[in-house]
Amino acid sequence: MRERIGTAQHSDDLSEAKTGDLGDVDIIRACGMAGAHSPLSLSIWRWRVGGDRREIFAVARGLIEMGQDPGLVHRVLAHLADDLCRPCKGRGYDTVPGTPMLSDEICGHCHGTGRVPVKHEQERELVEVIAKLEREFAAAVMRKLARQIEL
User: Fold this and answer.
1) Fewer beta carbons within 10 Å, N or C terminal of the chain?
2) Which domain range does residue 71 map to?
3) C-alpha 132 chain-centroid distance
4) DSSP helix, strand, coil percent of the chain (3-state; round to 5)
5) Prediction pTM value
């Protein structure tokens, strides 16, 4: 669903889908309704899933308004904006030497996550706050879409 939401965000086809199907406009509408209750969560999704880098400013502002330390917020967001593990290119696995194929060996740098982890406890806690907001937003979007499919 993450990919579908990210794709819908950049879609040129906003026509209504057939009854029982979900079109890009349905997904965008569900995101908008879910975002009305949590603008910060919507900004996180637009940034992390949709790739809209401008949203990082709204995310920073929202986290600071929640009482997070501004310096911590800026460090964590800078990290998350560029946290792809370079040795494995975000795949989580090493490649077979001399080939483009993935091996069975988990990347020793990111331990299979494809992302570079943050180093300090406070940073990890803020990353978890962001991840929680992301999960809650995804659940709200899914509830909106489920209601639409049932109609």
Assistant:
1) C
2) 2-150
3) 11
4) 55, 5, 35
5) 0.74
Can you tell me the distance from the alpha carbon of 115 to that of 80, in angstroms, rounded to the nearest whole number?
9
Residue with tokens 């349905």: 26
Say if CB 3 and CB 110 are below 8 A apart. no
CA 142 to chain centre: 15
CB 114 within 8 A of CB 90: yes
- How far is Cα 116 from Cα 87, in angstroms, rounded to an integer? 10
**What tens digit of pLDDT does each residue of 22-61 get?**
666 666 677 667 677 889 999 998 898 888 899 999 999 9
Give dist(CA 109, CA 107) in Å, integer.
5
> Which residues neighbour 109 within 8 Å (Cβ) at sequence distance 6 or greater?
85, 86, 87, 88, 116
- Neighbouring CB atoms inside 10 A of 113's CB total 15
Question: Which amino acid belongs to residue 34?
Answer: A
Residues 6+ apart with CB under 8 A from 15: 23, 25
Which residues have a Cβ under 8 Å from the Cβ of 105 and sit 6 or more positions away?
93, 94
